[in-house]
């Protein structure tokens, strides 16, 4: 049997191998996606969009903008243009959103200076009040009590430090806009393992880390490619599936667990923890 070399704190991640260990190592780190995993993104987003509309309607000429963008999901064409004009910008959705607001102003001859930044602040005030799933905070607390290191590993544009309900529940954070790469890139998850290794101050194997998220492509397949384990939150109401039309994966699945409620993750992880944690 082959093995992977542990990731040493302060060193770059080793090349990925595809050799398997003869038995699973206990889990030491659990990483969570945010949007549609810990909270209902659609509910949160609609509320934030309404706050944005409320501001825009008060600006001279803003009623035309509000009418054109009344649908919270009516920005896709604008986003496509932004992604085309600014390659790679999608990992920093705060920039995407501000550019979308600017283009809406230009379209209707409204001063962007009067709208973009203040309306963005209104939007984010609600974005940072996410509609947390009822079991999100209890699950995070329970996993920490079980001895796991808990990380926020996400592409969200919500400012995690501005969400009081989850304050102090994460040992480390890896946010796409901050590290400059997104979850579709294996380097993103190598960075997450590196952060956890530095925090623990001892060698850490990718397979001792598990990713929990709703996007099968980004939260399961990519972590799997770097040697991490994963739990797929099968959420039919998630933004990728409900709005973007992403289809659920076909078996066989490469995740070690498939859950319908976040609280179910505890029972999936419990048998894979060190004996001292049980």
| CATH homologous superfamily heading of the largest domain | HAD superfamily/HAD-like
CATH C-level class of the largest domain is: Alpha Beta
Number of helices: 11
Based on CA atoms alone, the radius of gyration comes out at: 20 Å
Q: Largest beta sheet: what is the strand line-up?
A: 5-4-1-6-7-8
The N- to C-terminal Cα distance equals 29 Å
The averaged pLDDT comes out at 90
Q: Number of DSSP strands? A: 8
What kind of sheet is the major sheet? 6 strands, parallel
Tell me the count of domains: 2
The helix fraction, in percent, is 40-55%
Quaternary structure annotation: single chain
Structural class, judged by helices and strands? alpha/beta
Based on the coordinates given, report the CATH architecture of the largest domain.
3-Layer(aba) Sandwich
Contiguous uncertain segments of 5+ residues: 1-22
Secondary-structure element string: EEHHHHHEHEEHHEHEHEH
Q: What is the CATH topology assignment of the largest domain?
A: Rossmann fold
Give the DSSP E fraction (strand runs of 2 or more residues).
5-15%
What overall form do the CA principal axes indicate? elongated
Protein name: HAD family hydrolase
Keywords: Hydrolase
GO molecular function, one term: hydrolase activity
Pfam families: Hydrolase (PF00702)
């Amino acid at each position: 049997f082959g093995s992977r070399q542990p990731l040493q704190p302060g060193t770059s991640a080793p090349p990925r191998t595809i050799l398997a260990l003869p038995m699973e190592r206990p889990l030491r780190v659990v990483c969570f996606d945010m949007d549609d995993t810990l909270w209902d993104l659609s509910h949160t987003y609609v509320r934030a969009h309404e706050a944005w509309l409320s501001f825009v309607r008060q600006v001279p000429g803003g009623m035309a903008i509000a009418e054109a963008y009344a649908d919270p999901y009516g920005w896709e064409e604008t986003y496509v243009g932004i992604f085309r004009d600014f390659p790679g910008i999608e990992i920093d959705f705060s920039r995407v959103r501000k550019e979308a607001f600017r283009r809406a102003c230009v379209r209707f001859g409204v001063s962007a200076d009067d709208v973009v930044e203040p309306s963005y602040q209104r939007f984010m005030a609600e974005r940072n009040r996410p509609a947390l799933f009822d079991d999100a905070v209890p699950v995070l607390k329970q996993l920490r009590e079980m001895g796991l290191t808990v990380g926020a590993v996400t592409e969200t544009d919500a400012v995690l430090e501005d969400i009081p309900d989850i304050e102090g529940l994460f040992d480390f954070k890896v946010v796409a806009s901050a590290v400059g790469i997104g979850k579709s890139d294996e380097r993103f998850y190598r960075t997450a393992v590196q952060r956890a290794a530095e925090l623990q101050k001892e060698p850490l194997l990718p397979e001792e880390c598990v990713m929990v998220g709703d996007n099968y492509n980004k939260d399961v397949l990519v972590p799997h490619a770097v040697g991490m384990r994963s739990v797929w939150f099968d959420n039919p109401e998630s933004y990728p599936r409900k709005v973007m039309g992403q289809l659920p994966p076909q078996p066989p699945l490469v995740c070690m667990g498939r859950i319908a409620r976040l609280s179910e993750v505890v029972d999936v992880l419990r048998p894979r923890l060190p004996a001292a944690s049980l």
